[in-house]
Amino acid sequence: MKEIGGFFGIEVYNNNNKYYKNGYDFNYARNCLDFIIKERKIDEIYLPVYLCNSVKEKCIKAGCKINYYHIKRDFTPDLEKINKNSYIYIVNYYGWLDTNKIKELKEKFRRIIVDNAQAFFNDYVDNIDTIYSYRKFFGVPDGACLITDLKTKENFDRESVSDIVYFLVGRNEKNANKYYDDFRKSEVDIKEKKIKKISLFSENILNAIDYEQIKKIRESNFNFLHNKLKEINKLNIKNVIYYMYPLLLEEKQDEIRKKLIDNKIYIPKLWPNITGESVIEKEYINNILPIPIDQRYSINDMEYILNIILN
Predict the structure, then answer these.
(1) Domain 24-150+160-208, CATH 3.40.50.920 — does that match?
(2) Pairing relation of β-strands 87-91 and 111-115?
C-alpha cells in the first residue's frame, strides 16, 4: 500500500532524463562486466595491465581465465599477438579512443568489450558491449550503464544506498577529509555487491541533471588548462577530454603532486597496483597528474590550480 503524508524525503524528479536511454542501468560498472561474462558465457578474457584491481577481481570471481596485454603510448591497446576470436576488454583511458578507433578494433577483433567509465560523453558503437559509470562523473553513490544487444528476463532487485549516502551529503556540507574514511570503506564494500538495478536515490538525482551544461563546463575547464599546459604536457592531446586533464611530466611530477595535495587539490594515482614488466604503464602511473576539471569548478578554480602547477 502506498504511503501518503508524513515527512518529506528527497525531492523526486519524474522527467525520465536518462542520458543513454537504451541501456541497462545497474548498480556498479564492475557488475555490468559480470552481467556480460555470465550472459555471453565468457571463460577467458584479455585485460590491459594498466587497470584497477576491481575488474580483475570480478573476472576471477566469475571464473574467467585472465590474459594480459600492454598499451601503447597513445593509450591504444597493443593486440598484435592476440587471437582475433578472443574476448578483449578495452579501457578507454581519459576518453582517448573515439568511435572511429573503436570501430577499427571491432573490425579486427569481433569480441571486444569497451570500458567507457572515463568517457561518459563518448558515443558508443552499435553491437559492442559498452560500459559507462555514473559515479565517475556525477555525485551519486551508485550507478552504471551497459549498452548491449543482450536481453535478459531476470528482474533484478534495486540497490539500496540509504546507509552510505551520508558521506555524499557530508562532502557538500563540510570538507572531504572528514568523510574520506567512510568513502574508502564504501569502496571496499562494493566488492561484495551483487548485480542489481541502480538505486532509486541515484536514478532520481540523474533525472535532475543538466547533462549538456555539465559537458560544457568540463569542456571549458579542459580547454583552459590545455591552452596553458600543452607546451609542457608530453601527451599529444588532440580531442577534448571530459574526465580529468591528464598532465604527463618528465620531471618534478612528485613535487607538483605534493604541492597540489598540500593545497587541498586531490588528484588520484591511476593505478599504483600493477606488477611485472610494464614500462609505459608504470611511467603513466608515476608521471601523469590527473587534474580535476569537473562541473564543481570554474575557470577561476582552473587558474588557481594552474598557478600552483607553474609556480
Answers:
(1) no
(2) parallel
